[in-house]
Design goal:
Elements: H1 2-28, E1 32-33, H2 34-41, H3 45-57, E2 61-63, E3 68-71, H4 73-103, E4 106-113, E5 116-123, E6 138-140, H5 147-151, H6 155-161, H7 177-190, E7 193-196, E8 203-211, E9 217-226, H8 232-252
Antiparallel strand pairs: 1-3, 2-3, 4-5, 4-9, 5-6, 7-8, 8-9
Helix pairs in contact: 1-2, 1-3, 4-8
Length: 255
């Protein structure tokens, strides 16, 4: 009985090892064919095909109409999560501090977590009147400048994360799904998002996407300031500084 269990365990480990080889082959060579994968990792086509079907069923790879394979949406989520956990906060902290000192306003870094934006790093100026934020605080993705996180997601994932009913926080909150889709398209084209009073009437917020090593959007770097002291010229300056900061963080992550 023990020998049988050992053999099953060995077969399972070997199959898992081959499955990882197949996944890595697809990751390294987008639009690769079955025959190429088999040749690259020295395995039979029937075995590779079984692995590919399992990976496709779990969303880790997807097959094109031409019969080639590339990574699926689940693989994108895994890659983003891995990059986030390894380096993001360490790389971003000194950049957030430098950015905050330049504008004398609150800066923060947010990621998508469980369908919401989550603050994972921040820096606040010493001035008495400032925007207060907390690491671990969550905000909806459809309101505020954190929409930039939603805007750059693959369409399928984006659709899953937009709730049927969009909660209203102020008179400026977008609560219509069609209007939100148009706004997300505009954000993608602009490369940044400016929010004026969508979550709080007294708050102006500007966010720019941060890229992972593979070019996917992994986070958003943000400046938040009281509306009464934020002019259009300030917003233009914030956009430029945020783009520089996002580029620096992205570079630190291997982009």
């Amino acid at each position: 009985m023990n020998e049988g269990n050992s053999a099953l365990r060995a077969n399972f480990i070997q199959s898992l090892d081959v499955g990882i080889d197949v996944l890595m082959a697809v990751a390294k060579h987008p639009d690769i064919r079955l025959s190429e994968i088999a040749r690259n990792i020295c395995e039979t086509k029937p075995r590779i095909l079984r692995m590919l079907r399992t990976l496709e069923r779990r969303g880790l790879v997807r097959r094109s109409s031409e019969g080639t394979y590339r990574l699926g949406n689940t693989a994108i989520v895994l890659g983003t999560a891995a990059s986030t956990q390894v380096d993001l906060v360490r790389v971003a902290n000194p950049i957030l501090e430098s950015l905050s000192q330049k504008v004398n306003e609150t800066t923060q870094l947010r990621i998508i977590d469980n369908g919401e934006s989550l603050c994972i790093a921040k820096f606040e100026p010493t001035r008495d009147l400032r925007v207060h934020c907390m690491i671990g605080r969550r905000r909806p993705l459809h309101a505020g400048s954190y929409k930039v996180l939603l805007a750059f997601l693959p369409p399928q994932i984006q659709a899953q994360l937009i709730p049927v009913t969009l909660e209203k926080f102020t008179s400026r909150t977008i609560t219509n799904r069609a209007q939100l889709s148009l706004e997300l398209q505009r954000i993608r084209e602009a490369g940044y998002c400016v929010s004026r009073g969508e979550v709080s009437d007294q708050l102006v917020s500007v966010s720019v996407p941060v890229l992972a090593f593979d070019g996917s959007v992994i986070a958003a770097v943000n400046i938040a300031a009281p509306a009464f002291r934020t002019q259009e010229s300030d917003i233009e300056r914030y956009i430029g500084l945020l783009k520089d900061a996002a580029k620096e963080i992205s570079k630190g992550l291997g982009w």
